[in-house]
């Protein structure tokens, strides 16, 4: 294990961890920490201030102080090599099998996920970096417990875009000058350090809440490029617009990162979570119906994606669509047909709206996404030329949450509790993405489940079908009933779910108390 000054790494340590945690790599992480962690913590404190203002009655709007940025003429950097054509992007965690399957999937891009689809178990953090490094070197292979052998195929491989953790998460196994380091800087720093010469260092940036947070990432990138003598713009980043406040700062976020920008992505699941979270105490104007009925065509979601495409194309940036959660099945043709239909409809809407490409959760969904985008793009690599000047979205349109049609039902509540607990059980055991009821569940979708329960409970909601009030007792009773049929010991996951779904204090991210429970 490397021995950089002021850095302490704490176990457990696997066989090849020393190949990632070298003295030089840890010393780079320490430099990043010393240069940027103070600002990270200040920006997290600013989030709290904004949230307190919202609770006191404030709202979101386009910022008066950045009007100049919105009105000036500027464009982001030209699309970087390997990112010109992003018509189909597969996402997934970085364990060896998924890494190989994603790289053999035929997608144009692989989002290598250390975020929503990953439990940041120390082993996952370091082994993920090993797998990425080995995959980039072409040497990654894997044999499953059943004896199936996995190797990288000969065909063209997707461009790798790595997604580090969000600014809010610490990495408690790396202490710098006695303080836990940042999960974002750890994931970014290790990936950049080990791979910037072997491949193009591209990133997806999650869960940002302001252009000041984008400025911090931009400064981190400039620091890394300068430190290793790489030209400006070597690093590229696609920002997920997946928080409510960020939707009001899309132009500013692109502007801050303009030399490093690779566009924006519509991260629908965290966006929905953020909408619930930010206005959770503000009563009926922000109350959403059952999660599964909030589709991408309800007014406030439509406003957000339309504005995203228009904003990106005005600035020469790619607009990338999000994740339809339906998972295909190789065993059940009925489930498979429904997934292909639902995902197909979602991708058709995105391609028609001007998105340049979109996400899929599973290799069997790559063809449907590709065919739909092929049909719209034809021989063009993207549709940056579709300016969508017909789109006009106001702050009121983005805020029109209360206009969402639908009902709050007992079935919706049961689904939130059951799926939420099952997901947390998987997360605590080290798996950050799972299929439950043929739907992809990850940290973002679980956040919706638990925050929706919290919101209904704390806004005195009566269910539309039964008339029953949502109380702690009802949620506990539903948990008893739903979990009884599932088997296994779900006690730890249930306790965590109750902490984040019914306690009076709203926990910012469920991954924070969940991470505290990890070794
Ligand atoms: C809100 C957001 O942030 S969305 C982005 C984050 N979320 C994700 O990335 C989720 C990605 N998807 C997944 O993790 C998986 O598809 C799951 C967990 C939902 C379902 O996975 P499984 O239960 O393994 O599905 P299934 O059994 O149908 O998989 C069939 C094969 O495809 C592989 N596979 C499935 N999804 C993926 C993927 N995303 N990447 C690579 N390979 C995959 C499986 O490893 C399996 O391979 P095998 O036949 O060699 O064993
Ligand atoms: O990260 C994507 C999302 O939808 O959340
Ligand atoms: Mg997300």
Structural commentary:
The strands form 5 sheets. This protein has a 4-stranded parallel sheet. A 4-stranded parallel sheet has the order 9-10-11-12. It has 2 domains: 390 residues, TIM Barrel, CATH 3.20.20.360; 110 residues, Malate Synthase G, Chain: A, Domain 4, CATH 1.20.1220.12. Helix 7 packs parallel to helix 9. Helices cover 45% and strands 12% of the residues. The chain is built from 19 helices and 15 strands. It binds acetyl coenzyme *A, the ligand O=CC(=O)O and magnesium ion (MG). Magnesium ion (MG) binds next to helix 10. Belongs to the malate synthase family. InterPro entries: Malate_synth_C_sf, Malate_synth_sf, Malate_synthA, Malate_synthase_CS, Malate_synthase_TIM, MS_C, MS_N, MS_N_TIM-barrel_dom.
- CA-based gyration radius: 22 Å
Separation of the first and last Cα atoms: 19 Å
Helix content: 40-55%
CATH superfamily of the largest domain: Malate synthase, domain 3
Instruction: Give the C-level CATH assignment of the largest domain.
Output: Alpha Beta
CATH third-level topology of the largest domain: TIM Barrel
Shape: globular
By DSSP (H or I, 4+ residues per run), the number of helices equals 19
Structural class, judged by helices and strands? alpha/beta
- List low-pLDDT spans: none
């Amino acid at each position: 294990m490397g021995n950089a000054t002021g850095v302490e790494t704490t176990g457990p340590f696997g066989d090849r961890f020393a190949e990632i945690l070298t003295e030089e790599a840890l010393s780079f992480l320490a430099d990043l920490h010393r240069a940027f962690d103070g600002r990270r913590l200040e920006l997290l404190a600013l989030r709290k201030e904004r949230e307190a203002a919202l609770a006191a009655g404030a709202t979101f709007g386009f910022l008066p102080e950045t009007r100049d940025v919105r009105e000036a003429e500027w464009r982001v950097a030209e699309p970087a090599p390997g990112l010109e054509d992003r018509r189909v992007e597969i996402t997934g965690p970085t364990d060896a099998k998924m890494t190989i399957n994603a790289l053999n999937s035929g997608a144009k891009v692989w989002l290598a996920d250390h975020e929503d689809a990953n439990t940041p178990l120390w082993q996952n953090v370091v082994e993920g970096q090993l797998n990425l490094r080995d995959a980039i070197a072409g040497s990654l292979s894997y044999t499953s417990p059943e004896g199936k052998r996995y190797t990288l195929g000969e065909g063209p491989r997707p461009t790798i875009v790595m997604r580090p953790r969000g600014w809010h998460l610490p990495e408690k196994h790396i202490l710098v000058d006695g303080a836990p380091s940042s999960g974002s800087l750890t994931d970014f720093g290790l990936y950049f350090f080990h791979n910037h010469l072997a491949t193009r260092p591209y990133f997806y940036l999650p869960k940002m809440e302001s252009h000041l947070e984008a400025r911090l990432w931009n400064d981190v990138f400039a620091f890394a490029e300068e430190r290793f003598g790489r030209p400006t713009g070597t690093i590229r980043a696609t920002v997920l617009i997946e928080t409510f406040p960020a939707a009001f700062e899309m132009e500013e976020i692109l502007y801050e990162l303009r030399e490093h920008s690779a566009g924006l992505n519509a991260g629908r699941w965290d966006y929905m979570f953020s909408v619930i979270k930010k206005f959770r105490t503000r009563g009926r104007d922000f109350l959403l119906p059952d999660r599964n009925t909030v589709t991408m065509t309800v007014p406030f979601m439509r406003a957000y994606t339309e504005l995203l495409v228009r904003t990106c194309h005005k600035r020469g940036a790619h607009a990338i669509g999000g994740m339809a959660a339906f998972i295909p099945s190789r065993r059940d043709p009925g489930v498979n047909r429904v997934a292909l239909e639902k995902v197909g409809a979602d991708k058709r809407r995105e391609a028609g709206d001007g998105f340049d490409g979109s996400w899929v959760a599973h290799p069997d969904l790559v063809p449907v996404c590709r065919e739909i985008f092929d049909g719209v793009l034809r021989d063009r690599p993207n549709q940056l030329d579709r300016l969508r000047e017909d789109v006009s979205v106001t702050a009121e349109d983005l805020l029109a949450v209360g206009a969402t049609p639908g009902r709050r039902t007992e079935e919706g509540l049961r689904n939130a509790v059951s799926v939420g607990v099952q997901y947390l059980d998987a997360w605590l055991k080290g798996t950050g993405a799972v299929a439950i009821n043929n739907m992809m569940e990850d940290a973002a979708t679980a956040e919706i489940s638990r925050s929706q329960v919290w919101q209904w409970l704390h806004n005195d909601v009566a269910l539309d079908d039964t008339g029953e009030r949502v109380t702690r007792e009802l949620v506990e009773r539903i948990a008893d009933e739903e979990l009884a049929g599932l088997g296994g010991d779900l006690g730890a996951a249930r306790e965590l779910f109750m902490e984040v779904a019914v306690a009076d204090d709203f926990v910012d991210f469920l991954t924070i108390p969940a991470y505290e429970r990890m070794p």
